[in-house]
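Dear Dr. H.,

I hope your travels went smoothly. While you were away I took the liberty of generating a structure for the chain from your last submission, since the lab meeting agenda had it listed for discussion. I wanted you to have the full record in hand beforehand rather than looking at slides cold. The sequence, exactly as received, is reproduced here:
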Amino acid sequence: HCTARRTPIRTETSTFANAMKTPTHPLDDLTAAEITAAASVVKAALLADASDGASDDEIRFSYVTLAEPAKLAMAAYVTGEGPRPPRRAEVIATIVSKMDAYIFVVNLGDEPSVASKNPVPEGCQPLFSPDDCFLAEEIVKADEAVCAEIAERYGVDPADFGTSLICDPWSVHVATPDFEPLKWRPDGRAARLIQCFLYWRNDEADNQYAKPIDLLPVVDLNARKVIHCSRQPGATPPKIGLKTNVNYHRASLETNSYLPAKHRSPMKPLDVTQPEGPNFVVTNDRVVTWDGWSMRLGFNYREGLVIHDATFEGRSVMKRASLVEMAVPYADPNPPFERKCAFDVGDYGLGYCADSLELGCDCLGHIRYFDAVLCDSKGEPYVTKKAICMHEEDMGVLWKHVEYRNGHNEARRARRLVVSFVATVVNYEYLFYWYFNQDGSMEYEIKLSGMLSTNLLSAGERVDGEGGANDGAPLHGVLVAPGVNAQVHQHMFCARLDVQVDGIDNVVDEVDLLTGCVGKASGVGDPFANAFGPVKTRLGTERAATRTCDQTKARTWRVSNPSVINPITNESVGYKLVPFTRGASQPVLLTGPECAVTKKGEFATKNLWVTPHADDERFPAGEFTPQGGPGQGLPEWTERDRSLGGEGGGDVVLWHAFGVAHVPRPEDFPCMNVEHVGFSFKPDGFFSGNPAIDLPPPAIAGSKEDLSAGTCCAANGHAANGH
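The corresponding predicted structure, in token form, is as follows:
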């Protein structure tokens, strides 16, 4: 699923020097040396325990990552009340021949050692690494039966399979527990399954998603073979299918069958320059300060970018923030698509899928990049260059007022700090942005782009039985090219927000804007029926705090610190979580309650969950999503209905689920223009007034008035009034 550009770590390069730096903080990502040390200790432990003399080649690593210190231990260290937490690594490795996977915690330092070793629960599978995904494609291409059937059905040359047959690897989220490949092994052990959606391309610049193939092989990675192959009932290759080109690549645009075959004339340059340099300062490699904000950046194989210790003007706002899961169901019950779904964070890891970003394309202006050090399936470290991008953006007017009596104008432009990364998960691009604003607000935006996952039409969806010019309408998707269906689907995300609003003890209120009841609740009537206002409901326990958005009530969720009082409002200081401030408001998970996706992705059936902090509660669909069971993660934790701290508040974590329901359009093909979704975390009674009122008047250097169109209405003495 991953197309990240791996850079080998060679001793003579600057990449080596950066990757080998000695960590200076307990939350620093693992260095290449630490990854190597942890992998060596795990290999030695596994080989020592193997009774039949297993070799290094049989040990396959899913990941080697930092084992973050316990939150209380970190707090004690920061305040000087406790020692520096030890450096530890968390590792999952498998002895392939035995199909035994283990979770290790490794003590690092001068003499690395195993601190703990536990088996991965029976029936669960560790995350699929990039090497696992590439291996699945190799296995399919080497399978003689699959290749022979493709050659016969599509009339293609097997000699072209190496470059032209494309196998998109997806985890298997079965619709029913009796799915045959789960239990194909005579010894009863669980198989490690990947299913591969197949496509054809004429060359490396050709768009394979315009040429889907109606076979779906299932691979057991442990057995290294195809153990099942599903066929799409009723599907037949369209006569013109493999000859229709629908391309976007600069090297193949001229081959397009019906879309433009050459680029339009380029626009005049619009350059972003900062002649005096950026305003951000980076210390200790990952500690960032910018216009009142301070934060630490982290990066790991699963979540990708992590924000630690975000403060504004020295006051704490967020302890830790990241994206911790996704659920992407496809709404087509036609076999074999009933099991087409992805939990991208838990299945493949966003960090593993991170791209190396490009100057002037992914980011504009004065850019600071950060590399990421990860490991491959052999436990060997590599670097994803430029995995994180940081830059500043002009955001237009932040605040403005014109005194209409004399025409005096006061306006301030907004600047924001952007910290981002991009993950390519086979066909889709997910662009993740954290925004830090001058008014003390944080925002999170996800932009969705890339390629639609396509298929041929199924039984009952074709008019002439063969396709071509008379293709019928798909029942569960949209035709985006001749004979090519793009299924309706959802992208559901979950952000984990370890809030710390002016301190660790916080409470959460749901705030609805209601008509009439504000006055009535205070014993005051509403004789003119014009009263409306905010009504707070305290979310005191976990079950009470499982909530959904309600745009008809302008619903938000306020996180406040009862021990800190705002001198203006005489109420506790707070921030509010405002859903869907990026993109349109969208529904929760749309699959039915009996659907396997719903049972595994229950986190996405609500927009908000709140739990008391626990170090081991990390991922809302559970630690192991590939072939994992239902009801893990948030539904399991919240079953206890724990208190969220009472009136004095507690150490709470917000889990915000949100998403995009995607009904494809022909305009989304071949490459989709970005869709937007996201939320804001805004100060709400945190300050005594507008925290951006002290911004200086803007300089106009670099701006130029275009007088070629004549004068505007203001020159004729017209002015506008308004409320």
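Two observations you may find useful: The radius of gyration is 27 Å. The chain is about 10% helix and 35% strand.

With kind regards,
E. W.
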